[in-house]
Amino acid sequence: MSDIKVKICGLSTEDTMAAALDAGADMVGLMFFPKSPRHVTLSQACKLADMARGKADIVAVTVNMDLDGLSRIKELVNPDIIQFHGEEAPESLAAAKVMHGTKVMKAMSISEKADLEAAQYYAIVADWLLFDAKPPKGSELPGGNGVSYDWTILKDLDLKKPFMLSGGLDPENVAEAIRVSGVTAVDVSSGVEREKGVKDSDLIRAFLAAAKGVKVPG
Ligand SMILES: O=C(O)c1ccccc1NCC(=O)[C@H](O)[C@H](O)COP(=O)(O)O
């Protein structure tokens, strides 16, 4: 039996980063999308990344970022993984992998099974796939909207690459989401916040305990 992997996304303070690390987060996400309420500056990101290095994988979350922007993040923050959360093509991921020498994660917007079809192309280059909910109409954010989709469509998905479920997860529903989808990795942002963009250490601990409490065959 092995533990579920958990990514806590959009951490922006030292207290909540410490809570996530102490409670056993496997990945911690730092947000580089300026419109996000979880956005961090490069200097904040460096401090938070230093706390996490060697304890959890540092994930830099980007949206359609140009090569210069990615290079600056690589040089200053040195993340373990770059998350691509926009309309980036598989070729852009491949280029970033070669250029920056990091692992890459591709987020895809999902509302129905057909949305999973492109995953096979991304799986050729991506080290991880993240199946997130399609943003609601009018949202300025491609992720972090706290909405979910039918988790059962991920059941029995075989991509030969690891993937995560996200979108609207929280400490109350994460165990059920893992059971009905069969996933072994989950990601959360809004569900561990007390208000939009403000992470809550107690909710982070509760989420990690609930997710890690589900045992999967491994
Ligand atoms: O969280 C954001 O503000 C965000 C903005 C732009 C692109 C991606 C963003 N989040 C990426 C994530 O990996 C979130 O954890 C994921 O979308 C799930 O969010 P939530 O439904 O709020 O748990």
Automatic annotation (TrEMBL):
It comes from the Bacteria. Its EC number is 5.3.1.24. The keyword Isomerase applies. This is N-(5'-phosphoribosyl)anthranilate isomerase. Residues 6-208 form the N-(5'phosphoribosyl) anthranilate isomerase (PRAI) domain. InterPro entries: Aldolase_TIM, PRAI_dom, RibuloseP-bd_barrel, TrpF_fam. The keyword Amino-acid biosynthesis applies. It catalyses: N-(5-phospho-beta-D-ribosyl)anthranilate = 1-(2-carboxyphenylamino)-1-deoxy-D-ribulose 5-phosphate.
